[in-house]
Amino acid sequence: MISLTSPVRTRAHAWPATAKLAALAIVSTVLFLVPDLRLQAAGLVAALALYALPGSIFMRHGLRQLWVIWPFVALLLAWHAFAGNWPEGIRTALRMTTAVALANLVTMTTTLSEMTDVIHRLFRPLRRIGLPTGVIEAAIPLVIRFTPTLVTKGRLLLDAWRARSPRRANWHIVLPMALLALDDADHLAESLRARGGLIPDEEN
């Protein structure tokens, strides 16, 4: 597993995680309520400006993480081009890119323990009525941590395929990718069992 928090310290690192996540939810909602393409483009420019404020190292680190969404943006644009609805495709691509960029910005400036604390507080009403929330509280940060690891392993599989075959990988890496994910999940389960497992938290 790797840390998603930026190594470059910014002022946003000191802001409360609850405030950052609430702001992210509000801005994302506004993005999906505003149909104007110019405002959507302005939103993306503003998000990129936030990446630039702490300096070039922070910006390069953030944009490198954002690069993984380009296949989804390309697929989205291609589909809308095929359907003859370019404006809607551009609008949706701008919304998605801006929302992911802002979410990545929050992740880069918030530690996983702060995220877990917020989730723990949000689930407090559910614990009071007796629902076991410990598994969900543990699963959410694990997904956040493991996603870039799986993306990196997917790239390594593609590189290994290209080194051995002149043909495109396409669906051929789906099975080894799934086996790698299952293997990682198995190792993680063993590690959790060795540490006592996921005991439901009774704390209110």
Distance between the termini: 30 Å
Number of strands: 0
Order of helices and strands: HHHHHHHHH
Q: What is the residue-mean pLDDT, rounded to a whole number?
A: 83
Transmembrane segments: 12-33, 39-59, 66-86
Subcellular location: Membrane
Family: Belongs to the CbiQ family.
Protein name: Energy-coupling factor transporter transmembrane protein EcfT
Tell me the layout of helices and strands.
Elements lengths: L16 H17 L3 H16 L3 H11 L3 H13 L3 H23 L3 H11 L1 H5 L5 H31 L9 H21 L10
Helix pairs in contact: 1-5, 2-5, 3-5, 4-5, 6-8, 8-9
Structural description of this entry:
- The protein is mainly α.
- Helices cover 73% and strands 0% of the residues.
- The model has no long low-confidence stretch (mean pLDDT 83).
Offer a few descriptive terms.
single chain, 204 residues, mainly alpha, 9 helices, 73% helix, globular, transmembrane, membrane
Summarize the structure.
The chain contains nine helices and no strands. With 204 residues, the chain is mainly α.
